[in-house]
Design brief:
The complex is a heterodimer of chains A (128) and B (407). Chain A has four helices and four strands; from the N terminus they run αβαααβββ. With 128 residues, chain A is α+β, with helices and mostly antiparallel strands. Chain A has one domain: N-terminal domain of TfIIb, CATH 2.20.25.10. Chain B folds into two domains: 126 residues, VC0802-like; 252 residues, Rossmann fold. Chain B contains 13 helices and 15 strands. In chain B, strand 2, helix 4 and strand 3 form a beta-alpha-beta unit. At the A-B interface, helix 1, helix 2, strand 3 and strand 4 of A face strand 6, helix 8, strand 7 and helix 10 of B. Bound molecules: S-adenosylmethionine and zinc ion. Zinc ion binds next to loops of chain A. Zinc ion (ZN) binds next to loops of chain A. Chain A: InterPro entries: Trm112, Trm112-like. Chain A: Belongs to the TRM112 family. Chain A: This is Multifunctional methyltransferase subunit TRM112-like protein. Chain A: It comes from Clathrus columnatus.
């Protein structure tokens, strides 16, 4: 799972509608993976980015070669330079989570990740 | 097929992407006989005169549904001697290739007739100059399911997966999603044309297979598109964890139908006693929640409603509309405000068929995530959408009434 998925997933257990994003990582094993750099894609995706979440994710210890330093303030779409785009690209598309857990900050539901595939299924008592 | 394009370059692009194109020609003339063809072709001198001098050339004579014997090919070529092509013939590598294409009626039951039988009895013959050979046709071989590292009994065949991928307008920098991804057949073809892809399925085993690495990633590796597979996820699409809408440039999918991969959704049928799922959840790695059948027309409708939420404005939904086999009844095309029909192509299996539906999202408002909880049929027709089987069916099928069951 590339980290972009983490950025667009939220806990969806019954009644869990606020403070359900971002899911909190634990016990993560990740690897660096390839992805073509597409400024057009990143600019199109930019409005969906929650900047604070991105910054926190970029500081995750499992990101090899140290943290990726992004500006604390979210730049305007027009002001995005290639360097910042490359950093966003690296965090969202080039980090591949293989195993680990994502837990909901609100209800505590744990979504396990196995061989790169997060299990987002809900238990019976959790579906709306 | 004769079509008009603005620019020769556009014709070349079509030859690159269209799976069904064998070759693209500059159209010179046509006729029900060669006499008729020559009559118009002589008047089109401005089209072929530029190649009379200093151009190496060759002729080819082919047919649809017919093999044309060598001796007649020679006769046909001689018939064009008035074009006075002075440049040397070059069979291996000509600068220009002129093509005659004879169209014969489908052989049908006569398929077993001798090879040259009926030769010359064509419906129409077309003549033109070769612009480009179709380059996407060999992708059908490349994506052959049987040669794939990982596939299953739900895998979509290569040609159809490619046709579907083209309907999504896949290209570099787009993000495309398959919510019933199974063994991933359409992820590969969509990624072939450049897009990033995401897939999800209620059944993780479909995506994983038996190997150490998920099967879908093994196949993607074989096709050198693994870098474009951004994520595979396990969830029931009716209880999905997407944080927001407007995420995808296209959604491409083969919804579950039929015996092998029937539709399921989380939950229980009313009246089925419930286990203590809290206890079962203690081991979330192995817990498999109960599922119950998912009514077909409901699923198609839910898919369109969910797509309207998840697509960007202008994004496309490409999916197969399942047909109910034993009743030979087509499931209606759902009508949902903001989702416009672009194409509806029938693959006819005789007693039943399946329709490849392409829709485009045409609205810029931001909607709330749709509620896809099981609901009574009557209820879902009460609010903002029109029952698919009422007006729409009449309007739509009146034109081409292929189904003998429809009056
Ligand atoms: C026809 S198959 C798709 C096959 C796929 N195109 C392939 O190439 O293998 C339908 C898939 O939908 C899945 N499915 C059924 N109900 C579902 C649901 N409610 N949510 C998500 N996936 C579901 C099945 O597990 C199955 O893999
Ligand atoms: Zn939660």
């Amino acid at each position: 799972m590339r980290l972009i998925a983490h950025h667009i997933l939220a806990c969806h257990a019954k009644g869990c509608t606020s403070n359900n994003f971002p899911l909190k990582f634990s016990d993560v094993e990740s690897q660096n993976a390839e992805a073509e750099f597409s400024p057009d894609f990143l600019k199109g995706f930019y409005p969906k980015i929650e900047w604070n979440v991105l910054i926190t994710t970029a500081k995750e210890k499992f990101i090899k070669f140290g943290e990726v330093s992004l500006p604390e303030e979210q730049p305007n779409l027009e002001d995005l330079d290639e360097e910042t785009l490359k950093k966003i690209h690296h965090v969202l598309l080039e980090i591949d989570v293989i195993t680990g857990k994502m837990s909901c900050p609100n209800c505590g539901h744990i979504y396990p990740i196995m061989s790169g595939i997060p299990n987002m299924l809900l238990a019976e008592h959790e579906i709306a | 097929m004769v079509a008009e394009v603005e620019d020769e370059e556009h014709a070349r692009i079509l030859a690159k992407r269209c799976v069904l194109i064998k070759s693209v020609l500059e159209f010179f003339s046509s006729g029900a006989s060669y006499e008729a063809l020559h009559l118009t072709n002589r008047n089109k001198e401005h089209l072929w005169a530029p190649f009379q001098k200093n151009t190496t050339w060759k002729f080819s004579v082919t047919g649809y549904n017919q093999t044309i014997p060598k001796y007649r090919q020679r006769d046909v070529v001689e018939g064009f001697s008035y074009m006075a092509l002075k440049g040397p013939v070059d069979l291996a590598n000509p600068e220009q290739e002129f093509c005659c294409f004879e169209e014969y009626s489908s052989k049908g039951k006569e398929a077993l007739r001798p090879k040259y039988d009926g030769d010359g009895n064509f419906i129409c013959v077309y003549f033109g100059r070769l612009i480009a050979k179709g380059q996407a046709r060999n992708l059908i071989q490349k994506y052959d399911v049987k040669k794939r590292a990982y596939y299953g009994n739900t895998s979509m065949d290569a040609e159809m997966s490619l046709l579907m991928a083209n309907q999504t307008l896949s290209a570099n920098g787009k993000l495309i999603y398959d919510p019933f991804v199974g063994t991933g057949s359409m992820l590969y073809t969509v990624a072939e044309f450049g897009a990033y892809v995401i897939g999800s399925d209620i059944d993780g085993r479909q995506m994983r297979g038996k190997g150490k690495e998920p099967g879908v990633l093994s196949s993607a590796g074989q096709y050198k598109v693994a870098s474009r597979i951004l994520s595979l996820l396990t969830f029931d699409v009716t209880n999905n964890p997407w944080r927001c809408g407007g995420l995808f440039d296209a959604i491409i999918t083969d919804p579950p139908y039929g015996v092998r991969a029937g539709a399921k959704r989380l939950g229980r049928k009313p009246g089925v006693p419930s286990r203590d799922s809290v206890a079962a959840m203690r081991d979330p790695d192995t817990y498999i929640p109960p599922t119950h059948p998912y009514e077909l027309s409901m699923l198609a409708l839910d898919l369109v409603i969910l797509s309207r939420y998840l697509l960007k404005d202008g994004g496309r939904l490409v999916f197969f509309l399942p047909t109910v086999n034993d009743e030979y009844k087509e499931v209606d095309i759902p009508v949902v405000e903001g989702m416009e029909l672009v194409a509806n192509s029938l693959e006819n299996f005789g007693a039943w068929g399946r329709r490849l539906i392409t829709m485009v999202k045409k609205e810029s408002i931001t909607r709330e995530a749709p509620d896809l909880r099981p609901r009574e049929c009557s209820e879902r027709y009460l609010d903002h959408y029109v029952p698919a089987h009422r007006d729409f069916r009449e309007k739509y099928f009146a034109g081409f009434n292929r189904n003998p069951d429809v009056p």
